[in-house]
Design goal:
The complex is a heterodimer of chains A (about 400) and B (about 425). Chain A has about 400 residues and is mainly α. Chain A is built from 18 helices and 2 strands. In chain A, helix 7 crosses helix 14 and helix 11 packs antiparallel against helix 14. With about 425 residues, chain B is mainly α. Chain B has a single domain, classed as ABC transporter involved in vitamin B12 uptake, BtuC (Orthogonal Bundle). Chain B is built from 17 helices and 2 strands. Chain B has a two-stranded antiparallel ribbon. In chain B, helix 4 packs across helix 13 and helix 6 runs antiparallel to helix 7. The chains are: A mainly alpha (about 400), B mainly alpha (about 425). Chains A and B meet through helix 9, helix 15, helix 17 and helix 18 of A and helix 7, helix 13, helix 15 and helix 16 of B.
Amino acid sequence: MSAVSGMASVGRVRMTPERLGWGGGIVALLAFVLTLPPIAVRTPVPSILLALVAAGMGVAAIRAEARRPGWTAVVAAVLCGVLAWAATTAELGQLEVVASWGALTAAMLRFATPLIFAGLGGLVSERAGVVNIALEGMLIMGAFFAAFGADKTGSWVLGILIGVLAGAALATIHAIWSVSLRADQIVSGTALNFIAAGIAGYLYVDIYGAEGTPDDLPQVPEISLPTESLGFIGRAIANQNLLVWGGLLAVVVVWLVVFRTPLGLRLRSVGENPRAAETVGVNVIRMRYGAVITSGALAALGGAFLSIGFVHSFSEDMIAGRGFIALAALIFGRWTPGGLLLATLLFGFSSALAQRLPEFSPQAATLFQALPYVLTLIAVAGLVGRSRPPAADGVPYQREAG
Amino acid sequence: MSTVPDPQPGSAPEEKGAGATVAARISDQLAVGGVLLPVVTTLFAFLIGGLVVLATGKNPFSTYQAIFEGSGLNWLLPWVGGADRDIAAINLQQTLLITGPLILLGFAVAFAFRTGLFNIGGQGQYIAGSVVAVWIGSSDMGVPGWLQIVLAMLGAAIAGGVWGGIAGLLRATTGANEVITTIMLNYTALWVSFYLFGLGGPLQNDSQPDIPVSNDVVPEARLPVFWGDPELQGLHIGIFFALVAAVFFWLLLNRSTKGFEARAVGFNPDAARASGIHVGRTYVFVMATCGLLAGLAGSLDILGWQFRIATNDIQAFELGFLGIAVALLGRNTAIGTCLAGLLFGALVSGTSVRNLDPAVFEPALASNLTGIIQGLVVLFVVADVMVIAVWKRLSGRGRRRAGGAGTAGNAEPEPAA
């Protein structure tokens, strides 16, 4: 600390090692942005210089014991330097297709929404001390039953409702197994993933067969906003699905409930130290049941968005590991709603970019899809600051005898 | 996210096993359940699966009979003769073709369980092994065929071992939970192989630049077929590797120092550490061994009957996940895992498009039925608290609760299998 504590303070802002590290990250990002439209510098020299500065700031921060911001800056500097160099070697036309910010941001929000719902589900459950690895299965249940319900009732509202009930039903089994029977929560979750995929797949083949879900499936409406003229963010949000807004709202609601209400305090106490919670009168069993079932309902909303909000059909492989990416986002975001939101936006952005990258390089686009998983590996390994779960996460609770 | 829940501090365990480590619970089940429990579990799962079939207006009996005949297990019935017997033989070859890798994948999960680890990464380790097997097997090496087979299998085992070892190493050095790391490694392996065999990828087919598929394994480097027609995917010698692995697994677990250490860590990592066992090193060793077995399974499929990897197929690989069900149903023992491997191998081949009679039951439905049954088996197997309680009541030998419950059983791993 002492090496940098005497360092120049810029204006009124004191230059702490943490700020130095985060600043390095921003400089690194700038190095990449320079090479993209609308600026689109066509030579890598300024970007590489900026990346070097960013790396230097990172190293200084690490030396001053601010390891997490420091490493973030160093990693960002390397990544952005390479990306900037790649961008300057690409053709300008290709670059404009890949980096059309309005469309990219809109796609990011769409890709992030199922992850947000599922991740929030995971957050509620794990904050109460029950590991929910069945998020994947709950997404599948939500996706199929929302499409099925919307088709049979002719109403997207009822479709969502039926999807959510199906997700909650699956979650109830998880709750019975992990809370009442004190079974291993990972194994139970794995089993439910098989069962959900089996049930949804079985019913899908049995009911819809080779033709697939009908084309006139009722859909969750889009919300039109008069924001077209407000830059790329305005264009991105001008025509978004109702459930995209629902997802962003859910982040705020979950944050308020879990971190700003007595109920949330009890929920978290059950996940950190259930015995202490029980001694002050919290019903651990009921709290965990509630959390797990809520988690199923939330994740199913994400599935419903995928089938009747985004893709407008159901297919057996549509979830494609999104439940596990949501789990990754939860860990990457350190079990907080804000962190989760940032992580899902990052993963959503990487999906959106991967969708457009084939224009530039199909191989790079494929490798890009591995990014969320590799980043999460790095995060859980503690290379960039350790992610710590709630203390009693995954531990079955047993009441004192007598 | 601890897979191995530590006993609640300050609480005397009510029943031995409840709330204790996974390994301790498994040993408890072995003590009370024996062979009967897995059988009852399986029957129950099939019963519910049958109810699903019935609820959708189909006949569960003819469905199960068709699946049974599709698996070729009717070959074992002495009264089946003539043309039926020939068809049964071909179907049984298919079943055993899948059983071999499935047993290895079961061991890849079972060994981890016995050490208190949950290896969900069988899938990724299997893919890593498959990739290296197809790479070596399709290369023009100028060595004798048998040597190329050995090299390909060795390379696959090492690749799987490294992929599993990463999870073990991270657990040992940073405490990162192996459940999360193996899931992430699964998807990393998936996307890396998409890249390798995708259009323009470094290992994509040399002569067909428009198809995202690997080169074919050269004919000399294919595993010899000893039963059936090689042109019709007869049974290759891979199943013997699985049986050898079963013996190896039993010896390793029950007759070696490493295996004893692994089980001791599974029962109680703290006690193991206190008695001088290197817990971290054990984690790395166990996860690497698990990965090695899963990688070997990948090489058997590649060198035995697939001979190539198309990117479309990679996502459809489900065997790695099936390994979890195999291990759990087999109670993580050598013989149990082999039998569970045969059951699930029969289920997979019996519901395949090739073997199941579509006039009786649609294969697309049946493969989903397999998923449901597989999930139910796993679900019932882990409901041990319920099962043990019911069992004890039924058998009337409920053990008395005592303050020092579980002393003998927890301190020393019981020999099992």
